[in-house]
Amino acid sequence: MTRRRGLSIRAKITLWFSAFLVVIVAITYFVVLFVSNQVIQSGVRDSLVETVEHNVDEIEYYASISEDDLADDVDYFVNYGNGFLEIDDDFLDEINEVYTSLCLADGSLFYGENPIQRDLGEVAFVDGEVQEASVDGITYYIYDRELTDEGLDGLWLRGVVSEERGAVQLTSISKLSLIALPSLVLLAIVGGWLISRRTLRPIQQISDEVAQIREGEDLNRRIDIGEGTDELHQLADQFNAMFERLDESFAAQQQFVSDASHELRTPLSVILVQCELALEDDSPSAEEAREALEVIQRQSKKMSRLVDDMLDITRMELHSERYEKETLDLGELVDDTCSDLALIGENNITLTWDVPKELPVYVHGNSELLTRLLVNLVGNAYRYGQHGGHTQVKLMTDDGEWCRLSVKDDGIGIADDEQKRIFDRFYQVDGSRSSDGSGLGLAMVAEIAEFHGGSVQVESELGKGSTFTVTLHTEISPAEND
Ligand code: ADP
After folding, report:
1. Facing residues of 468 across strands?
2. Cα(412)–Cα(89) distance, integer angstroms
3. Atom of ligand 1 at shortest distance to CA of 376?
4. Which of 128, 127, 104, 126 is nearest to 117 (CA)?
5. Which atom of ligand 1 is nearest to the CA of 407?
6. Better pLDDT: 477 or 431
7. What pairing do the DSSP bridges indicate for beta strands 350-354 and 390-397?
8. d(Cα 338, Cα 54) in Å, to the nearest integer?
9. Are 123 and 133 in contact (CB under 8 A)?
10. Is there a contact between 358 and 473 (Cβ–Cβ < 8 Å)?
């Protein structure tokens, strides 16, 4: 199934990232302007206060002055009250757009400059405090100082500065921000786009390689995105591990199908041959017909058992979750199963069993599967055991963590080199092929032991007999568990 191609992850990430960045930068721009404005205005007010305070010391009163002083063209003298005011040449009537004027108590200008003197008449004098007044839509800061030295009564110094003095600085900050911030955004977006291309390239590679593996149905291929340990390399490793598993199970499945067909072919050919022989004979005797039917019945049973075993083993492998586990007493299970098996003892073989009587042996397992395991092992002991011999089942616990279930016979035994292979599916030792076994019994035993977290071993000597031992994890009793 192919999906319609939408926006790539890379485009989506870049879009989201850009939108986010634009919002952040816009907020930053306004915050920068606001804070700068605050700082600049506070600077303007400070310079106003500073200038006026400076000028306060530049005015002095003299009741009388000498001719020499008057001739001094540096300082400025003006009549006031009964004497003179000396306005020092350091008096700053206009500096950095801060205007200072000497005013009379009624607000009228006495000396100095004030570009908006006319409009500020109504603003009352307040000593030592910055006031604000609006003239023609422009805000002005006003700072007044009452002169209190002797002879200066009734005089005020008024400083005025327009709020706009800081506007020039603010405009340049704003211009700079409007150039710098979008450039940074652009740079970040281009950088993000390039980085995301680099980072996400392996995804495209993985997707392409998976598609190739799918199209070519070549499970041997592996994804190669180079060295690395990041999430994408981990993803590629996971894919490769999955292909490995698929490859293995695919091969195992093919092997199973071919083995199964092979195993079914023999009884089928026997049945076919029997049918042909029986049909060739126009008037077979009742005995001949019966013989043929018996052969057919035997081979059909063999096929039926083979199919049952195949279904069981496949079910175990593919749907092991269907087998629920519970805490069960293995001693009891061995007791019950062996009692039944003893009744159907083949080859005149005696079955004895021995389970610990003092304590129950609890395992966490599935009773149906564990019964099956024991039935298969005892079934083999009957089948390959000595005629009139003895099969012994034993359940032992060692350190309380593990228990061992062994099935010992005194039969034909298994050669050393065969011992490794008898747990393979469909494997039968030469000479056993004629038996009615399917070659799946021990594979099933191994599978069940593994399903329970355990294992199975064999010890055997040709002509003397074999012992199969299954090791399983024991559980503490349900009561202790509570
Ligand atoms: P089968 O259905 O042929 O018994 P199994 O998987 O149970 O298949 O056993 C595989 C082979 O291992 C058998 O064909 C037999 O040759 C050998 N085998 C299994 N159990 C015993 C035993 N107790 N004694 C001797 N040989 C055995």
Report:
1. 407, 458
2. 132
3. 7
4. 104
5. 23
6. 431
7. parallel
8. 116
9. yes
10. no
- pLDDT tens per residue across span 419-438: 999 999 888 888 665 567 78
| Per-residue model confidence as pLDDT tens digits over 69-80 | 666 666 677 888
Query: Counting beta carbons within 10 angstroms of the beta carbon of residue 417, is it exposed (0 to 12), middle (13 to 18) or buried (19 or more)?
Result: exposed
85 burial class (0-12, 13-18, 19+ CB within 10 angstroms)? Answer: buried
pLDDT score at 72: 64
Nearest-CA residue for ligand 1 atom 2 is 437
The residue ranking higher by pLDDT, 345 or 156, is: 156
Question: Distance between CA atoms of 165 and 110, rounded to whole angstroms?
Answer: 25
Q: How confident is the model at residue 198 (pLDDT cuts 50, 70, 90)?
A: confident
Its sign, for the CA torsion 55, 56, 57, 62, is positive
For the residues 198-207, what does the mean pLDDT come to?
85
Residue 318 vs residue 407, higher pLDDT: 407
Query: Given the structure tokens 């060295």, which residue do they identify?
Result: 227
Distance of CA 444 to the CA centre of its chain: 38
pLDDT digits (tens, 9 = 90+) for 322-360: 889 999 999 999 999 999 999 988 889 999 999 998 888
CA neighbours closer than 13 Å in the CB half-sphere of residue 459: 6
| CA–CA gap between residue 225 and residue 202 (Å, rounded) | 6
Return the ∠ at Cα 470 (arms to 464 and 474), rounded to 5°: 145
Structure tokens at 437: 């076994």
Q: Which two tokens stand for residue 144?
A: 């007044």
Which amino acid, residue 118?
R
Phi, psi of 296 (to 5 degrees): -60, -40
Pairwise pLDDT comparison (113 vs 160), residue with the higher score: 160
Under the banding of pLDDT at 50, 70 and 90, the label for residue 474 is: very high
**Single pTM value for the model:** 0.57
Shortest-distance atom of ligand 1 to CA 309: 2
Token pair 């092997």 in the structure block, residue: 255
Ligand 1, atom 20, residue with closest C-alpha? 380
Residues 444 and 373: their CA atoms lie apart, in Å, by 7
How many CB atoms neighbour CB 130 within 10 A?
17
Atom 14, ligand 1: residue with shortest CA distance: 428
Three-class secondary structure of residue 265 per DSSP: helix
Burial, 171: exposed, middle or buried (Cβ in 10 Å; 0-12, 13-18, 19+)? Answer: exposed
List ligand 1's pocket residues with C-beta within 6 A.
Answer: 380-381, 384, 409, 411-414, 422, 427-429, 432, 435, 437-443, 466
CA of 274 to the centre of ligand 1 (A): 27
